[in-house]
């Protein structure tokens, strides 16, 4: 499908949807029974998310095993396998990442899994120091878990596996290579521990959300609990626009810098966004790969099929756009019209954000109250 | 957190199993309706209609006084019926209302080259009203002085020593005023609310001699945190200032949203556990000390929670969910607050026991309660 055609079509659909909604406004914003929010919580938190957390744990376990094998007998194939497993684990992490709530953020867990954005170049600075001293503690997963978040998690492992400067050392098992491999292995093992904790803590959190009620000091209503899901959807898009795209775009074409993007060392900044969008759409749709069921997410609260269709088409348009772009920001920005393509992508994400704020937020009654939307 | 609460209970003199039960029973034996105070706040209806409204401790509406535009906070004149309702930024008017009836007793007009910023405070003798203002042409904050004994004539103004002054409070003794300079430049030609200097904003907390207008103390956060707008404050009887920030940087940036300040020292930043910190959504609304002066509450309407802190130990105590809750006022009991919501709810909250009880009279639910709530003791 041509991008231009698709974009124009969905814009028209959106206009039609807006007209429809304006006519049907009182109905669209009618009170929604708390039981309806309860069903969505039940579905998303207990049916959809747990298998994804299992998948993340499984992928980090595979990565740790592969790294252990690679370190015992390093060669080019082993490195390629480790990189492949890194991408698999990173794909599922990027789908889970926008669900910023409960165990995902507890004890800085999301930062330990992925310390980004690193505005002050902390990881690079600390990594240089690490390579100079090569402290044995950093090859021990338990001790590593107590170290700076910038030296744990996916970005640190990405530096080990994908920085070309380290490839020869890794495969030739030089002194640097042996340390790097053991450090990388410790990072992967620590990720297994963290994702295991995450998986273990999720049911308790889901239970608290599902048991929303007047006696709960955390979630007095199911609607209020569902607001956290809506916020994850809304903020997930804002983060893509302002951080994942906004940072590399800079203040203009001359200021653009791919290295400010996420995971650009492994050349997958835009691949990350594709996977972010999969995890975010699950909040709306209720189906996430093999998990869940279509229409049982926030979409269940939207009583206009036209609006629902428009929203999905616009979402698909962004995914289609991404499919036509290389996974790496550097590669895209090397193209003559690469900067403009990135600006266009940001515009499409911003448009999705507007739809979430106006259509999804308005029709689900989750868009925020008087003080939240316009405080001082 | 459990440990922190236990420590706090000890500090409050109610720690340990021995005191928990008696305090619970004492509370149970004296229901909230025995609170004879009046609570007063700006409010809104569903059709761009705005009011100053008052309710009793049960939540029963006592009066609704229409306003020409959206209000914000209310200044209470000591030992007098006057209440100052200053329009929120960029405000052009302020009404002086009778606290018992809502009747308008005087009207203040903002000079053309200024805009009101929603907050005001009276001197302890009730004679002067101080209002935070924006001198937008010169990109500076101003505190204007109005003589209540002379028909609320504007008699003076002095520098707020920062941009975008917002909440202000008298310091103990009443000779100095603490001003939260939010650091944001706005201009009425561009809606008067949109920040125009996010990249360069420099918020600060200033303590000013209200009689001379001279700066006595000033504190800022470290440069990395310059996008933390210092907006709302409250002052304890011992002079400790509790501060709530509003962050204008990235959604995932890890920044403190709460602090305390003792003039002459640095601002002490405080953070909640990660799961709560994320739910604060980078935004604090109202700040209020409790009756003991040791606990303060900070509402976070974007996250729908009220957080509670121990000013003495700088510990986070607990949080209580309050959908769109923002207005916050202390009752006359240690650790107890009333919180109002933009969705119409009102609750009594007990920060020590972590309890939330809805106000029983439904009449207050007909309104959307605005950012700040004041308590008028009888």
Automatic annotation (TrEMBL), chain A:
Residue stretches of biased makeup (Basic and acidic residues): 250-267
InterPro entries in the cross-refs: Imelysin-like (IPR018976), Imelysin-like_IPPA (IPR034984), Imelysin_sf (IPR038352)
Record's signal peptide: 1-30
One GO term describing the cellular component: cell envelope
Keywords: Signal
Protein name: Peptidase M75, Imelysin
Stretch list, region Disordered: 248-268
Residue ranges occupied by any Imelysin-like domain in the UniProt entry: 53-352
UniProt main location, coarse: other
Coiled-coil features, chain-numbered ranges: none
Subcellular location: Cell envelope
TrEMBL record, chain B:
Pfam families, per the entry: DUF1513
Name of this chain's protein: Twin-arginine translocation pathway signal
PROSITE patterns attached to this UniProt entry: TAT
Domain of life: Bacteria
Signal peptide start-end: none
Naturally occurring in which organism (per UniProt): Thalassospira lohafexi
């Amino acid at each position: 499908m041509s991008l231009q055609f698709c974009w124009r079509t969905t814009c028209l659909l959106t206009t039609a949807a807006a007209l429809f909604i304006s006519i049907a406004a009182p109905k669209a914003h009618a009170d929604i029974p708390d039981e309806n929010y309860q069903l969505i919580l039940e579905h998303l938190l207990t049916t959809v998310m747990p298998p994804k957390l299992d998948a993340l744990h499984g992928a980090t376990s595979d990565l740790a095993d592969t790294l252990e094998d690679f370190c015992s007998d390093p060669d080019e194939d082993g490195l390629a396998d480790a990189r492949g497993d890194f991408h698999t684990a990173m794909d599922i992490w990027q789908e889970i990442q926008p669900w910023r709530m409960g165990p995902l953020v507890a004890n800085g867990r999301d930062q330990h899994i992925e310390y980004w954005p690193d505005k002050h170049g902390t990881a690079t600075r600390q990594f240089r120091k690490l390579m100079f001293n090569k402290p044995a503690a950093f090859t021990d997963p338990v001790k590593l878990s107590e170290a700076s978040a910038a030296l744990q998690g996916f970005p640190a492992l990405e530096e080990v596996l994908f920085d070309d400067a380290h490839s020869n050392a890794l495969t030739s098992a030089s002194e640097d290579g042996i340390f790097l491999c053991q450090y990388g292995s410790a990072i992967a093992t620590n990720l297994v521990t963290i994702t295991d904790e995450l998986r273990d803590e999720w049911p308790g959190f889901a239970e608290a959300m599902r048991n929303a009620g007047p006696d709960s000091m955390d979630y007095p209503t199911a609607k209020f609990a569902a607001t956290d899901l809506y916020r994850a959807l809304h903020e997930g898009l804002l983060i893509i626009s302002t951080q994942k795209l906004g940072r590399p775009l800079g203040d203009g074409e001359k200021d653009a810098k791919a290295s400010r993007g996420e995971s650009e060392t492994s050349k997958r900044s835009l691949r990350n966004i594709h996977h972010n969008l999969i995890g975010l759409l699950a909040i709306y749709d209720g189906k996430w790969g093999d998990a869940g069921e279509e229409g049982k997410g926030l979409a269940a609260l939207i009583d206009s099929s036209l609006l629902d269709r428009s929203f999905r088409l616009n979402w698909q348009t962004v995914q289609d756009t991404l499919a036509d772009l290389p996974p790496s920001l550097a590669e895209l920005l090397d193209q003559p019209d690469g900067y403009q393509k990135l600006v266009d992508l940001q515009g499409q994400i911003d448009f999705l954000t507007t739809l979430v704020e106006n259509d999804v937020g308005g029709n689900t009654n989750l868009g925020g109250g008087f003080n939240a939307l316009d405080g001082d | 957190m459990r440990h922190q609460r236990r420590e706090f209970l000890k500090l409050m003199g109610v720690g340990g199993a021995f005191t928990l039960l008696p305090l619970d029973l004492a509370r149970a034996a004296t229901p909230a309706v025995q609170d004879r105070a009046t609570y007063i706040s700006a409010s809104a209806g569903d059709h761009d209609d705005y009011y100053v409204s008052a309710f009793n401790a049960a939540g029963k509406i006592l009066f609704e006084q229409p306003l020409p535009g959206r209000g914000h906070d209310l200044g209470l004149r000591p030992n007098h019926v006057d209440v100052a309702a200053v329009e929120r930024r960029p405000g052009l008017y302020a009404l002086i209302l009778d606290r018992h009836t809502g009747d308008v007793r005087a009207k203040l007009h903002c000079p053309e080259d200024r805009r009101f910023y929603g907050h005001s405070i009276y001197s302890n003798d009730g004679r002067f009203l101080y209002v935070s203002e924006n001198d937008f042409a010169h990109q500076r904050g101003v505190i204007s002085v109005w003589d209540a004994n002379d028909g609320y004539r504007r008699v003076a103004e002095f520098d707020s020593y920062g941009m975008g002054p917002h909440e202000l409070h008298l310091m103990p003794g009443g000779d100095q005023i603490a001003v939260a300079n939010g650091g944001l430049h706005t201009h009425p030609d561009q809606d008067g609310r949109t920040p125009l200097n996010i990249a360069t904003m420099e918020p600060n907390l200033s303590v000013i001699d209200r009689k001379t207008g001279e700066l006595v103390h000033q504190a800022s956060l470290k440069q990395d945190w310059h996008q933390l707008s210092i907006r709302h404050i409250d002052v304890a009887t011992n002079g400790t200032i509790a501060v709530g920030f509003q962050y204008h940087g990235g959604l995932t940036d890890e920044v403190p949203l709460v602090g305390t300040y003792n003039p002459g020292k640095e601002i002490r930043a405080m953070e909640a556990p990660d799961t709560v910190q994320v739910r604060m959504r980078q935004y604090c609304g109202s700040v209020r000390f409790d009756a003991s002066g040791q606990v303060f509450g900070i509402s976070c309407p974007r996250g729908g929670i009220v957080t509670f802190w121990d000013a003495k130990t700088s510990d986070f105590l607990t949080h209580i969910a309050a959908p769109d809750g923002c207005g916050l006022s202390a009752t006359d009991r240690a650790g107890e607050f009333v919180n109002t919501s933009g969705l119409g709810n009102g609750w009594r909250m007990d920060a020590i026991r972590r309890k939330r009880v809805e106000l029983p009279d439904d009449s207050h639910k007909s309104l959307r309660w605005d950012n700040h709530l004041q308590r008028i003791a009888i």
